[in-house]
């Protein structure tokens, strides 16, 4: 298989696995099912991803790479970095499968024996740390309202985004995740920020 064909097949596997893990979770999805959906034999799938765990981690890393690329493109500090979370929420509203994947797997991964447990622990540490940095930068630039603690605000924003995604997945027809995040940030950031 040529290099370009191999990359295309790997991308297809990641897309199909993303959809299936999102629909049935990690534990509810088998490598044989993913292989069949990709038009591969089980050994053919194992050529690209030797274990189910390696496939899961590749799916999660791919999702974060794509999102991080969009959110941090042309690294902006402070209030602008926080506003990019609103853009991410708007983007997620058009990617139900990705939101399902993240929500299902993050819930499953609360179990210490889940293969993605450590990945999610490290991801949340990184996300909260990056948000805290953005809030601190906004504070230092004079863009944060008095009394907003960067550490507390960072945890709150991460929790709000996750909670909105769950409510959205459960079918609240009035929910606009981006508008809700924007409204929240307006309570924390000064008008002219």
Describe this structure in words.
- By secondary structure, this protein is mostly helical.
- The protein has a domain of 134 residues: Tetracycline Repressor, domain 2 (Orthogonal Bundle).
- The longest helix has 24 residues.
- 25% of the residues are buried.
Number of DSSP E strands: 0
Number of helices: 9
Q: Into which percent range does the helicity of residues fall? A: over 70%
Order of helices and strands: HHHHHHHHH
Chain-averaged pLDDT: 89
- The CATH architecture of the domain at 55-188: Orthogonal Bundle
Estimated share of beta-strand residues = under 5%
CATH level 3 topology of the domain at 55-188: Tetracycline Repressor, domain 2
Terminal Cα span: 53 Å
Shape: elongated
Q: What's the CATH C level of the domain at 55-188? A: Mainly Alpha
Low-confidence stretches: none
Major pleated sheet: none
Radius of gyration: 19 Å
Helix and strand composition category = mainly alpha
Offer a concise description of the structure:
With 193 residues, this protein is mainly alpha-helical.
